[in-house]
Amino acid sequence: MSYNIIETRNLVPDVDLMKVEAPDIAKAAKAGQFVILRIDESGERIPLTIADFDVEEGSITVIYQVMGKTTKQLTTLKTGDTLQDFVGPLGTPSDIRKLGTVVMVGGGIGVAPVYPQARAYREAGNHVISIIGARNEEMLILEDEMAEVSDELYVATDDGSKGHHGFVTDIVKDILDSDQQVDRIVIIGPPIMMKVGAGVTAPYGVETLVSLNPIMIDGTGMCGGCRVSVGGETKFACVDGPEFDASGVDFDLMMSRLSFYRPQEKEALESYSKKCGGDCKCH
Amino acid sequence: MSLKQQMSEQKPEERIGNFDEVALGYTEQQAVIEAERCLECSDPQCVAGCPVNIDIPGFVSRIKNKDFDKAIGILKKSNALPAICGRVCPQEEQCEKLCVLGKKGEPLAIGRLERFCADYERDAGVKSPAKAKSSGKNVAVIGAGPAGLTAAAELAKAGHGVTIYEALHEPGGVLTYGIPEFRLPKDIVRQEVDYIRNLGVDIKVDYVIGRIKTLDELRDEFDAVFVGTGAGLPRFMRIEGENLNGVYSANEFLTRVNLMKAYRFPDYDTPIKCGNKIVVVGAGNVAMDAARCALRLGAEEVTVVYRRSEAEMSARIEEVEHAKEEGVIFNLLTNPVRILEGENKTATGVECVNMELGEPDESGRRRPIPIEGSEHVIDADIVIVAIGTSPNPVIFAGSEELETTSKGTIVVDEDAMSSLAGLCAGGDVVTGAATVISAMGAGKQAASTISRYLGNQS
Question: Which stretch of A192-201, A225-234, B433-442 has the lowest confidence by average pLDDT?
Fold first, then answer.
């Protein structure tokens, strides 16, 4: 198979958006789900959360951060190019219904998967408070889009170049300390941020969900490469998740499993950079 | 006493350095000599032992006459995938088990002869099959493994429009992601799949039923549905340390190696870690495949750990022998109880206990019982769990009505029809993990049920 790329756009340094023509997936997609793509015959399969889907246009949008060989190679693709494989929608959709007030927290690239969820919670009649963060102003993504689907929007940057000087979790804590009733918190971002976030919300007893991003291969439940420990039980993030109740997640196990292939990932990137000979954006 | 023609093989010390096929097949001369051993029984028992009932004496007698084209024609009448079956069927349990020659010597090498014909045809150039007259009916087949491919071929031959939905990016199921290249070259799988495409079957890959569409939606869209989604959900042991780094399900390990070609990293992007000391838990074909792949990836020491004895191992005898020749160590009557943790949550060893066999259990096999105080550690930086699989429930998402067992398998009647009209199922999704050929037999059976069902509909 091959799937047409209908738009590519650089959002902020090292973060790109790609829109892919995939009408069947767009029709079936729900907030919280993801896709797996493979660029070409020798490519690996990587999971990316669905950042947006458009049934009319028949498209799926993904947003990715350049981390290694495959994501670097993705940046070389342009409108009109194709991906060899694009599989989805995968994972269990988020449990979206009217709860009252929902706090949506997105850190870094994690704002991308937060966006369709925030929109869906809003459409379901919730009061949506969103908190988005990044290292600095330059790295902040989807601010306008998030403002559109949120009743309240807060911004945090590590260096204070925009909004709150500090972490998104500081704002979460302020909200929880205020009189405001909060019915659910959704935190999506780097594992360490989700771990810290889960620690912040735990004493308040407010249901906190995180979207986990372990290593995946097939994404359909046949290998267990993505297994995580939740409440002492082994779960496959690709079918049981990717969303789980944060209170039971063994984040340390997940982070160490994520680091298992670091040397190989480095090797793949080096070998690719040598091969492409400066013909691409990876130099 | 007459013996089988020997088939030449790559030598163990050579083959553990590559992923090329181990068994090299018969030459034309060897095939003819072997075929001449066939007694052409008037009541051939071998045919009854074949799950798809190939006319064995028929194709063997054509080999005797060197009429290989006719031989392959006879094979393909009953079996769309002879190059695969000739390689991976456990013939010793099936056709060859019933061969009368086996009573006073070795049975006829039916599998090797089937393989010879299929390979002959490939070298000569496969002829495109004639397209059947259209029945005007359309059937959806879910899963492009042996059951689905066989059902699709039979349905297409009956004139039905057939669409296969496959979740992975390549068709073949276990033939593609599970069985390694050195036992079943992927070019051969591709060629057999192309033959099925040439019958008019449309194969849609990257298409996950249960996610893009539900079973119910497919039933509305098509006149009948066949479910051949296999048993792809890996079982784990549920022991301490099982989620540590370095612990793989056999499915993951083999998928990385076979489907993603991780043994060619970094030319292929998917990485794999093989380590120095590998423990493989289990003793089926999957365990043998994983152990032998690990050797080829450069492991220093590969140990198979199994809680029963050699007699109960479910792997093919030939595969166990190959594994032993290649240097795989077998620790039998040994059961893992815990995986030991080193730095950065990485496995460093497997704590095991010795077992003894007690009274037979419900499966008829003697129950293994742990021997107290026999705990010992086998060093391992990689542990591969190959203790079985069960059907993947993803397919059922959004389709509650279909009757399934507590083990997650689909309930079907003797004609392969499920509790839902027009929905047949076969292969591992019905039986739990079994063999390639039994899945093909089930696919064939289901196709004839579907044709009958569609005939009654019009």
Answer: B433-442
The confidence band for A171, taking pLDDT boundaries of 50, 70 and 90, is very high
- Taking only Cα atoms into account, the Rg of chain A, rounded to an integer number of angstroms, comes to 18
Query: Beta B138-142 vs B161-165: how paired, if at all?
Result: parallel
- Nearest by CB to A217, which of B238, B246, B256? B256
Q: Does any CB of chain B come closer than 8 Å to the CB of residue A99?
A: no
Contact criterion met (CB below 8 Å) for B61 and B35? yes
Contact yes or no for A44 and B268 at CB 8 A: yes
Q: Would residue A224 be called left, alpha or beta, if left means φ above 0 and alpha means ψ between -120 and 50 degrees?
A: left
Long-range contacts of B397-406 (CB under 8 A, 24+ apart): B397/B210, B397/B211, B397/B214, B398/B210, B398/B214, B398/B215, B398/B216, B399/B210, B399/B214, B399/B215, B399/B216, B401/B216, B402/B215
Q: How far apart, in whole angstroms, are the C-alpha atoms of residue A110 and residue A120?
A: 16
| pLDDT digit string, tens, across residues B311-340 | 889 898 889 999 999 999 999 999 999 999
DSSP state of B256: I
List strand residue ranges (DSSP E) for B148-300, in order: 161-165, 202-204, 224-227, 233-234, 247-249, 277-281
Q: Is B207 helix (H, G, I), strand (E, B) or coil?
A: coil
| Distance in angstroms (rounded) separating the CA atoms of residues A39 and B142 | 25
Coil, helix or strand at residue B230: coil
The stretch A257-282 carries a mean pLDDT of 80
User: Would you call B392 and A222 a contact, using CB atoms and an 8 Å cutoff?
Assistant: yes
Q: Which residues contact B228 (CB under 8 A, 6 or more apart)?
A: B141, B142, B143, B145, B146, B147, B148, B151, B173, B425, B426, B427, B429, B439, B442, B443, B446
Q: Tally C-beta pairs within 8 A across A and B.
A: 122
Chain A hits for B345, CB-CB cut-off 8 Å, are 252-253, 256-257
Is residue B243 scored above 50 in pLDDT?
yes
**How far is Cα A263 from Cα B442, in angstroms, rounded to an integer?**
45
Q: Which pLDDT score is estimated for A283?
A: 44
When scoring B208, B240, B389 by the number of chain A Cβ atoms within 10 A, the one with the most, hence best to mutate, is B208
C-alpha dist (Å) from residue B34 to A41, B65, B88: 41, 12, 19
Return all residues near A128 (Cβ < 8 A) that are at least 6 apart.
Answer: A101, A102, A104, A118, A121, A122, A149, A150, A151, A152
Checking if the pLDDT of B359 tops 90, the result is: no
Residues in CB range of A129: below 8 A, 6 or more apart: A101, A102, A103, A104, A150, A151, A152, A153, A154, A175, A182
Cβ atoms within 10 Å, residue B276: 12
Q: What length is written for chain B?
A: 458
For chain B, what is the total number of helices (H) and then of strands (E)? 16, 16
SS3 assignment, position A62: strand
Chain B nearest CA to A94, separation (Å): 14
Contact A39, A70 (CB under 8 A): yes
Q: What is the pLDDT of residues A76-128, one digit of tens each?
A: 999 999 999 999 999 999 999 999 999 999 999 999 999 999 999 999 999 99
- By three-state DSSP, how is residue B178 classified? coil
Cα A247 to its chain centre, rounded Å, is 19
Of A24, A253, A272, the CB nearest to B212: A24
A235 touches A227 (CB < 8 A): yes
Closest CA to B110 of B41, B47, B68, B65: B47
| Side chain identity, residue A46 | I
Q: For helices B146-157 and B186-198, what crossing angle results, to 10°?
A: 30
pLDDT over 90 (residue B268): yes
Cβ proximity of B87 and B318 under 8 Å: no
User: From the list A44, A87, A253, which residue is nearest B270 (CB)?
Assistant: A44
